[in-house]
Amino acid sequence: MLTVTRRWLEGLIDPVAAADGAPPAALLPFIAWALRGAGLSIGLLAGLNLMLGVAEVAAALMLGWVIDRAASDGPAVFWQANTATLLAIAGFFVLLRPILLALSAGITSLSINPGLVSLILLRLHRHTLGQSITFFDDDFAGRLSQKQVQTATALTSAISEGCNALLFGLAALFGAVAMMGEVGVWL
To answer: Residue 74, by phi and psi: left (phi above 0), alpha (psi -120 to 50) or beta?
Structure first.
């Protein structure tokens, strides 16, 4: 099962997919040009990180519920009255949350980071190979390849960290605001 999942994650991005034309000069069209074909992988990572942000808020709600119930029911009644709910909460912390974390880490490390770097790097390299000899007269080949690697790595890092940190943080923030809104509107 893990081998199948790993191979599926590794195959989400085709690193040798050809680009449509030359890279655009403007930033956003260039990013769209470089990332074309990686949408499913990026979308999965974004969705998983949004779910992880919501899961963090849910974890806080569950822990608060357990503390409130334990304080109000007392130790003798608490375990008997809340066994099913406590098992569901334990399932959340032991199964669901780690599975979401593992899938997010798997997509990042098996699909996004290796696949996206290779995809962007090969697209830029193919474009560079199509240049005339005079294009290389005023530039060193090492500098050109260094810029290609830096661009591919930077764009991959921006996408990866944007999904991992920004979307996770936004989901947790909006979830926390909604949770506090339930407690009191003025909070």
So the answer is: left
